[in-house]
Design brief:
Layout: H1 2-27, H2 35-84
Length: about 110
């Protein structure tokens, strides 16, 4: 019974991570700035995340690092939801706003 429970957890996590990866690739077409700069930034954050994950695993072992990672993902998803739903005033986010290049072209337009 424990085997099937672990298998269900693994299938759920794999499906979630696959959906997130495909969603990120799909959202790349909506960015207004350089796609190449975005890909380099994504690669750098991937390297940083891998190094931090290795340190977390060495400190906390598997079960605790897994729980910390899931909690971190839930926190990030909650923050993204709060920003996207505009539940906080946009003036408080001005410090985090990226400079927009007026020469950049929108890659994807809504029809």
């Amino acid at each position: 019974m424990q085997y099937f429970f672990n298998l269900l957890i693994l299938i759920t996590l794999w499906t979630t991570s696959s959906f997130a990866a495909y969603f990120i690739v799909n959202e790349n077409s909506y960015i207004a700035q350089s796609l190449f700069a975005f890909c380099y930034f994504e690669g750098l954050t991937g390297v940083a995340a891998s190094l931090l994950a290795q340190l977390l695993y060495e400190c906390c072992q598997m079960r605790r690092s897994f729980l910390v990672a899931i909690a971190f993902v839930l926190l990030g998803a909650t923050c993204l939801l709060v920003v996207q739903m505009r539940w906080i005033p946009s003036e408080s986010l001005e410090a985090f706003r990226l400079e927009h290049n007026s020469n950049s072209k929108q890659i994807h337009t809504d029809d």
